[in-house]
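To the team - S-adenosyl-L-homocysteine complex, inputs and output below.
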Amino acid sequence: MNATEKLDLKSMTLPELKELMADLGQPAFRAGQLFSWLHEKRAGSFDEMTNLPAALRRELAERCTLTRLTVLHELVSRLDGTRKYLYRLADGNCIETVLMHYHHGTSLCISTQVGCRMGCNFCASTLGGLVRCLTPSEMLEQVYETVRQAGERVDSLVLMGIGEPLDNYDNVIRFLRLLTDPKGYNLGQRHISLSTCGLVDRIYDLAKEDLGITLSISLHAPDNETRNRTMPVNRRWPIEELMRACRDYFKTTGRRISFEYALIKGVNDSPEDARKLADLLDGMVCHVNLIPVNPVKERGYDRSGAADIHRFAETLGRLGVNATVRRELGGDIDAACGQLRRQYEKGEALA
Ligand code: SAH
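Output:
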């Protein structure tokens, strides 16, 4: 870090804040007070941190940034109350965050990068490539700002917005540790799912982090031939290697793996595909989420018909695979990730 660069305070761990307080000639307990203002009380400004001496607050304001996001646009679903936020980052880039209401509580879907470089050919988020990775504080603020905006607590989190979380590994791990810190927001690790297109080397790393989170794999095809065509990452790490990493994740963490499978008409939705998928998952402790693909204008894919979706799910069930068709939320506000940001970047009118 160069000398003029400000410290990203909200991305710092408690031990790092302790070091900072020592550098500033402050007693160690100030670090705990500061951590609480940042992550437990989630203060919007240094002025709110009233138990810190005024001189320290001034010094912090000079040397550090207090990351905040600006709401550019908010869409609320009339069907189910799903809320989609388009947030502006300090450098002018924008990202999407989606708040969903389920029977079991409120779930938040956050972005981990501005854009994405994975190139999945059914996905809107990757169309413009990767712009940059998000910092831990920018991921935290998607939670904190949405809680401020919506006025309700978030009970669970999915890393399924824009970006590939394992392509921003260190920042994502730091973010998860800060968000689950009992002295901060204190979200339970068991209420977090991380979704990946399959960066195999990082799945092995993640298993060793001792985080009790759920790993969600974007599989979307039952064989290498189809997956090579729709998901370029498969050419680097084919399905067999991905499955080996998933088995290792389960063995190390004891956490059931979740597989995402977007059904695309005529591409991956035949009964034969369902049988291949069942073979692939044979003996694995897992759950399959079937998702009717969300059509993206630039991609020209259609979602599978209702009868085909039903038959696919039934075939899996008959072959002993635990599978459900995901209930769609926010269907009227284009809740699928990446589409709102894209409209905004292209200067199109937002609904
Ligand atoms: N990069 C990560 C997380 C972000 S995408 C990953 O690949 O898992 C979140 C989920 O939405 C992934 O399962 C992704 O494959 C899926 N997805 C992307 N575009 C989609 C579309 N048009 N319809 C349905 N699901 C889509």
